[in-house]
What does this fold into?
Amino acid sequence: MLRPDSATSLRFAAVSLILCTANICTEARRSSYALLLDDEEEDGGGGGDGSAYPVLTGRTDSTRSFYDEVGARIPSPNATYAVTLDAFARRGFTERETVALLGAHSIGKVQCRFFRDRIYNFAGTRKPDDTIDADMVEEMRAVCGSDGDGDGAAPMEMGYYRQGREVGFGAHYYAKLLGGRGILRSDQQLTAGSTVRWVRVYASGAHGEEVFREDFAHAMVKLAALEPLTGSPGHVRIRCSKPVG
It folds into this structure.
């Protein structure tokens, strides 16, 4: 069983997806592994129900990248709720599956330039987005600068804190959204439309966590099955950042 850290397991779930097969094909081709998403299980804390999903190996990487094509299919970090849902729907994902996949935003970082307008001049009002909790606005400004005149490169932790500590991947992300503490616009907008029902389900304590992890696992399997490159085309990279040859 392959057991990378949670951040590695989820990096490609955060929608900006580029998968290097060399990392998961070292033992056997066309076999199945499980990526464990439960941090506590690594520490002997138990749990793990609904936290594992199969990852098929035996796939190859393209000999070149298709930046423009990918950019046209993947919603940007500052995309609206409607754009994000539409992008996933075009690939066959339901609202429930999309909301579950966005739970990967509970980890990682995003640069201030992708949400700076929300805390300084939302929709040309010269005021912050009124859907953001006031304390959250101050926290975001503390990271990005008080006047918003920087280059926007400062990173804001995507992690959503619980009881003063970073808890990593998990459904606490949805509870924070209900409290107006979404960092990205599309995150917070999940509470404004029909998707709020799934936000509430996932935020509903231990049972919600279990439902979220199960839904996330199923959605990840579906995501991984989108047009994989197999067989003789392509190649297996030794290093993800460098094509072979």
